[in-house]
Amino acid sequence: MNMQFSRATLAMISALAMLALAPPSLAQQGTAPAAAPVAQQAPTISQVPAASQSPVAPIQAAPPAQAAAATAAPAAPSATSDAAAPPAEREGKVLKAVTAELKELSPWSMFMSADVVVKAVMLGLAFASLVTWTIFIAKMFELAVVQRKLRSALAKIADARSLAEAQFALGAKGSVLAGFLAAAMREARLSAGISSDSGIKERAASSFSEIVRAEARRVRLGMGLLATIGATSPFVGLFGTVWGIMNSFIGISKSQTTNLAVVAPGIAEALLATAIGLVAAIPAVIIYNHFARVTKGYMELVSRASGAAGRLLSRDLDRTHVSGQHVRGAAE
Q: From its phi and psi, is residue 196 left (phi > 0), alpha (psi between -120 and 50) or beta?
């Protein structure tokens, strides 16, 4: 009897403890306090021994479930925030993603990502630039060699008294002066027996003019190509730029955004074509002007060589007439 009374007393104490502890925990978790006592008064006297062993267990099991529900409730709005966000925020997120994925804009990467037409323009301009520098190296070497040879030949015949003596002084070295001397001797040989010296000189001067024109064409070979590259390269590069910018505007219409971060790569690729056009055109113009001056100086040397050959021919003709007069005088 005493044992049953003590058990009943312990059950009552446990129930009072549970009722005293239940309202604060429910108030902290934001639930309805009226529902808790109903659930906590469920144990009967027959279940008191089991409840007396762990009186706080039902109260401690409730907070994790309620905390999970409390954390799951804010997660639902965040999951649907992207769908419910305004278009401006969505566009900003897309632009940030595109900007993060953009690689560094180097000339090679811009060339590789350019349009086929823009690539063709860039390759053509690069080839034109290569041709420009090839002509520059070849013409510099050629003009330096012919100028040195012609100056040396003029120095060698400076003291020559006849065409034969001048040819002997030059030897087998080929130069434009040797061509003048050969043309003068050929005309003198073909005009043997003709007493008109003016006719012989006129025909020789005509031959000299042909040689001068041929030499001018030879030394100016390639300069027309330089002039063409210098005049057309900027416009070819501008064509590539216009084509690339047109594609950029098409991309703007497709992406439905005017943000510069989206269309900047295409515009940069288009402007690269203009830059390559200027890189090809500016050296071509400078090299053409340089060779125009150098060629003019060389043609002045060619004119001097033509005049030297004409003077030697005139001396030979005068000597022929003087020797003939001496022969006729001796015969008389």
A: beta
Q: Are residues 225 and 269 in the same domain?
A: yes
Inside any domain, residue 87: no
Structure tokens at 50: 């089991």
Q: Spell out the residues 6+ positions from residue 164 whose beta carbon is closer than 8 angstroms to its own.
A: 185
pLDDT in tens, 180-236: 999 999 988 888 777 777 888 889 999 999 999 999 999 999 899 999 999 999 999
Which DSSP state fits 85? S
Under 8 Å between Cβ of 210 and 179: no
The separation between the first and the last C-alpha atoms of the chain, rounded to the nearest angstrom, is 192
CA angle at 102 for the pair 96 and 107, rounded to the nearest 5°: 150
Same domain flag for 121 and 220: yes
The answer to whether residues 303 and 212 touch, using CB atoms and an 8 Å cutoff, is yes
Radius of gyration of the chain (CA): 52
pLDDT, tens digit, for every residue of 309-320?
999 998 888 887
CA distance 130 to 123: 10
Q: Evaluate whether 186 touches 262 at the Cβ level (below 8 Å).
A: no
133 and 222 both lie in a single domain: yes
Give the count of domains, the chain: 2
Question: How many Cβ atoms from other residues are within 10 Å of residue 280's Cβ?
Answer: 26
Of 55, 75, 95, which marks where a domain is finished? 75
Q: Of the candidates 57, 75, 93, which is a domain's last residue?
A: 75
Q: Is residue 262 part of a domain?
A: yes
Q: Check the CA dihedral 272-274-275-276 and report its sign.
A: positive
Q: What is the dihedral of CA 251, 253, 258, 261, to 10 degrees?
A: -20
Residue 132 · residue 277 · CB < 8 Å: no
- What pTM was estimated for this model as a whole? 0.62
Domain with 134 in it: 107-331
